[in-house]
Amino acid sequence: MSSKRMSEPTAYVFADDGSVPNNPKLPFLLYRGAIDLIGTSEPETRIEHMFRHNGWGNNIWRNGVYPYVHYHSMIHEGMGIARGRAKVRFGGKTGRDVDLGAGDVVVLPAGTGHQCLWSTIDLLVIGAYPRTGQYDLCRGSKAEHDKAIAAIPAVPPPESDPVFGKQGPLMRLWGV
Length: 176
What we know:
globular, 176 residues, Jelly Rolls, 9 strands, alpha+beta, three-stranded antiparallel sheet, 27% strand
């Protein structure tokens, strides 16, 4: 498998900033250097395979991270950095700016705000969602925020950790 030896991710819980609700119970997870991309000419394929193998194969996409604050209120999201570097703000205006590079993976529980602040021209992010939940795109309006507060607790938990599978740290950290 393409992931490295299992390691504990860094976990953050972000407060509701009034526009972005974030997730009051589930932490955002940052897996530094989670995927061994050394010697591969197609890192995007390796990340996609890892996500699919671990049950996060719904609607896999290749792109960057939008330059505006947004979140998903009805589904969790995993993102793996295949190429390049970026500085991404997670958690809305009161969140945390995180420098990401190739091989890093982040897992955003439903409601977690994210926005690309800066990236290299070659940035390529692979995104994926678990089998459960429904994709939506929220940009922080008052009406969206109020709906999201009700929707977030109803989002089903994933069946596995997108990096390490059913025995991965996400299962314990999210109480699954």
